[in-house]
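tool_call: predict_structure(chain=1)
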Amino acid sequence: MRISKAFRLCLSVGLVFILLLTVILSMPALTTTTYANNSTYYVDSASGSDSSNGLSTGAAWQTLAKVNSMTFLPGDKILFKSGSVWTGQLHPLGSGASGSPIIVDKYGIGNKPIINGNGLTGGTVYFYNQQYWELNNLEVTNTSASAGDRYGVKVEAQDVGTYNHFYIRNMYIHDVTGTNTDALKVTGGIFITVSGTTVRTKWNDVLIDGNTVERTDRTGISNGSSWGNNDGSGNFEPYTNLVISNNTLNDIGGDGIVMRASINGLIQYNVVNKAHARDTHYNVAIWAINSTNPVMQYNEAYNTKTTNDGQGFDCDFNLTGCTVQYNYSHDNEGGFLLIMGSGSIRNDNMIVRYNISQNDRTRIFQFDSSYTPLNSQIYNNTFYIGSGLSTSITTGIGGSNPLSFKNNIVYNGGSGGYAVKANDVYDYNLFYGNHPASEPSDAHKLTTDPLLAGAGSGGIGMSTVDGYKLGTGSPALTSGVLISSNGGKDYWGNSVSASTSPNRGAYNGAGIVLTAPNTWIAVDDANVRDGTYATTNQAGTTAVTVDTKNDLISYKRDGYFKFDFNSYSGTVSNATITLKPITAAMSGIQNEVALVSDNTWTEGAITWDTKPASSTVLGTYTIVAGTSISINVTSQVQAAMSTGKKLSIRVYSTSAVNSNGNVSFASSESITSTDRPKLTITP
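tool_result:
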């Protein structure tokens, strides 16, 4: 029988179908789940090759272009070789999954791998609509001759709903030439953002931890959102589980750390030194805005520049429940805390407690002149203002809401006063030192010496403030008023009872025995001078001052001080060097202090050419004539107890100035004995 072509075709197709069906039925059931790839890829800028598969150190890729061309899968790792350097943008593709993030890290021994943006616009490391990533242990920089829209790391989610899990840890991000005219205050170090207006979008589970950020403009670490306006109008989709912690920031052009658009966000265990270093607008070291229940705790902020804000901390606009607790603020030119809010742009239910402020300038608290936050509570803080300062305690008080100010210690060695509204409540505070006419009435006020263990002795570091503990017999012990929901512990972690009267101030432990400190005047001190004076001793044995200057033309001056405490054999719980600047010819001069390990120099022989080198930087200080600077040298003295019981420091200017930019410190030959440089050791 003849079979038609059409029939033969149908038969063939049918046989193929039967065969395919048989194969499919014999296969295991298919699932739509995509399993983690879990591959590890290696990248080596010197010895790698993009033609390799990247799956071993011996077959590493070489370029960022190769990495950027790949779409990575959950569980993958991308490891960059330590010591390698790449130029350009790192922008790997793909997303991880819950429990299986994609990880970027380093391998090998040596310095962090460097990604150098070399002036490119945008993020040197950039992610767009990608989630479940962890970024670790890279060095990132992006400099240019001109300002621009540049970031160290930029992570962006746009119109995607909720995106999850982005961790940035242990990065070194430095020298990013952003723009200090950026109105959004976001260019600079690390920026996590939400953009777009079509789909409500937010980030969940963001951790920025353990990073070092230096010399970035305008901002160090920040986040933002196009859905981040917490004004009650419904345009608010806040970040959840946002934590910015354990980061160290130094020399930031504008703001240090800014938290926006969050609910229950945490800013904790960070250190910000010298924010607002270059920008001429308004900036603060650490602050929150447009958020609900943000908490700033266990942070140190110091050396913030200018009085255009210039504070260590800020509870800004559109906040509910801003809490500032357990922080150490010192030597900020604008003060301790900025408090904003105005009418519908509110700042309600603010709590400020168990903080220590030492020698903050201009004002401790600056309020918006037309508004005091509703239900604002300031209690159990310790504020120290050194002699010669004119720091005001409160400024800008306005509006109709009362301020509650209780259980605080204000140790006012300066001349500043208070701005107080008629309905403000001051109660159970201790005011000691100068008492300006504007000092508020307080039904349970104390004005006797609080017997602080070492007022003004705080150095650099959260652990250097034991001088603000209370001594046995202090009138502040157990004499405060109960505060409901008081946080349960003080600055040092001592418990605060909900039923018994607390101490006044930031310390709630038992009184400590105050041991008389031991003091030594410098045995050698002199300045050295370069240029034609480089071989000449500057009359170190007779000069009544020790001078520092970084002249634009020549004749720099560095100061050297040496202390001999060989007679001391006790323990060392605290050690401080105090220097008294007699003159500071220009305002805002910075002096840096560094450790000198060679103690063989003498004031009668030291010259510029023979001066010993310095090493560890102990601190940077804004010099105000007549106001002593205190340098914490506890660990250095402890170390010297077994290596000769001598300690030398070098003091020098950190920036070039004109010929009038000198600072003169009282020397050990000063006719005013109380001004002489001294080392104080507390057992």
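agent: The mean pLDDT is 91. Proceeding to next step.
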